[in-house]
Design a protein that fits this description.
The protein is of the alpha/beta class. The chain is built from 14 helices and eleven strands.
Amino acid sequence: MYRKVAYLSLMIVLILTLLSGCGTPGLGSNSSSKSDNPITVKLGVLKNVTHAPAFVAIKKGYLQERLGANVKIEVQGFSNGSDFSTAMATGQIDIGYVGPSPVINQYIRSKNIRILSGANNGGAVLVARKGSGVTSVKEMAGKLVAIPTKGSTNEISLRLLLQEQGLQVSADKSGVQLIAMAPADTLTAMKQGQVDAALLPEPWGTQIMNEGIGDIVMDWDQIPPNKGNYPLTIIVSGDGFLKDHRDLAKSVLLANEDAIKFIKDSPDDTYSLVSDELKELTGKGLDAELIKATLSHLHLTMNIDQDALKLMAQVAVDAGYIKGVGAEGLDLAGLYDLSLLKEIQEGK
């Protein structure tokens, strides 16, 4: 009798052990959002209207809904892509929206960052100060032209534009002189006659025009490469986050898809959402008409044009921003992980 009871007790213990093994998994590589343990996702964004899909995904709750109630979202705003890329390389952010050029620079240095998806193509314009004498690209020879930051996607587009017109970047008036300054500072510098022209993300060009400070010399759909249809805002992730939490990375892409659809379907309802998120990031919202003008200058898409990015990367190499490229040339194959995007597009 004693042996029978002991046998039954042992069987019960074994069954309970097996059942416990089928319970809720811990923070594994593809189960983090399903865990009972809370997790924080640190999302980086740039404080530009060209990042509208990110703002809408946050404000409409798409991001929280896709990630799940057990996930806390921390949003960090950046003024430029270089600071964003450094933050991702050092683990301060996990995933986010940024321009491609700083990401390519970071990838060449560390190989620890991946492009997952697109968000927006285009949205930058070339604007010239009234009285500068610049009414075309060729007339920028000998002029001082502003870009948001050195090595930025906007600078790469400007360099391509100058190449097309046979102009050179130089440190003196023999060519086109470049100066890096924040868009808000560029507006002030143009008012004071200190800068002749600038290639800027919207809405800064439209704002400069609306205030009577300058004129748009080349609209967004003429900016190289591909006449404005080039990746300006992409979604990237650090290697560690992508390896440990692929399900969460996919959730961010799904929220991005939700946001793009909302903007396209309900543009009038988008303006306040973008303005409210900008106010949280910068302390100041933006006029609805400026947001409207900007959105009309964006081509929202999750697709990634790898050929355009390779061309832009080569310009960055030629400009000295990307170093360490051997005789075999630029290899960006490992920069991309588009498998999650493919799953979404295939409905998986």
